Amino acid sequence: MAKIVVKDTEVTVMQINNEDYICITDMIKAKDGDFFVSDWLRNRNTLEYIGIWERIYNKDFNYTEFAIIKSQAGLNSFRISVKELIEKTNLICLQAKAGRYGGTYAHKDIAFEFALWISPEFKIYIVKEFQRLKEEEQKVLGWTAKRELAKINYHIHTDAIKRNLIPVKLTPKQTSVIYANEADILNVALFGVTAKEWREANPNSKGNIRDYATINELICLSNMENLNAVLINDELSQKERLIKLNLIAIQQMKVLMEVENRKLLKLPVIEN
Q1: Closest among 209, 212, 163 to 186, alpha carbons compared
Q2: Are 194 and 188 in contact (CB under 8 A)?
Q3: Where are the alpha helices (DSSP H) in 18-119?
Q4: Residue closest to 20 by CA, chosen among 145, 131, 142, 144
């Protein structure tokens, strides 16, 4: 569930069956005068559009019953509610929701047509705000995908540690210390600080240093985890690996910065 603001009107956007639905009950507040969704449904053009949409996207749509309802459109006595329309025709483009975020929701295709009924200007603005919302969601999804990739590669990384750096007789506590040290090699190589140093410098921040990384840093971190696993298998010492990984991080971040022209943190150089 998300909110967009269109011409000073706050409108709810909700995912229903993996599709975007927009609250037309919210939208109607932008129309001058006292109007209801049922007023919009009385319009023959409205029902014509809904019927075509349902025939294309809804295999269970009862078009026979819908045709009877549509034939009454335009009569002074004709009035139908969203709930009644859903019950009689099994349409899916409109949804009636109860509760805190209750109201009538329309699939985005229908909601944009409803916006035109409010005013052409309102439709233009709601399409613009909806597109902005989708772009913001894609940015978040991109960051999450990179974060998950880093987590997956970390399992490869820790497996190499277990097979090459942890003696059989170590206790679980001692093992966890080694894992922490190895994770900090990557932290120091990329961020210039250990996880503990970052927490001490950011006592009010939730999560850890990697939760605040940029997408470019997460891409670099994912590559470094794989490279560190290879270096561990080659039996390089921690110091040797730290120096190599730091130089690799600097080189990769420079490339990413040139490609995407982003302002990123300057990586520290670790002296021999």
Answers
A1: 209
A2: yes
A3: 24-27, 37-41, 44-57, 63-71, 82-89, 108-118
A4: 131
HEC assignment per residue over 47-60: HHHHHHHHHHHCCC
Question: Cα separation of 178 and 249, whole Å?
Answer: 22
Q: Which candidate, 184, 154, 160, places its Cα nearest to that of 234? A: 160
Q: What are phi and psi of 99, to 5 degrees?
A: 95, -160
Strand positions, DSSP E, the chain: 2-6, 9-16, 19-23, 94-97, 103-107
How far, in Å, CA of 213 to CA of 229, rounded? 21
The predicted-structure confidence for 80-138, as pLDDT tens digits, reads as follows 999 999 999 999 999 988 877 789 999 999 999 999 999 999 999 999 999 988 888 87
- For 131, the token pair is 């597109």
Contact 150, 222 (CB under 8 A): yes
pLDDT tens readout for residues 189-237: 888 888 888 899 998 888 888 888 888 788 888 888 889 888 988 888 8
- Residue that the structure tokens 């600097």 belong to: 250
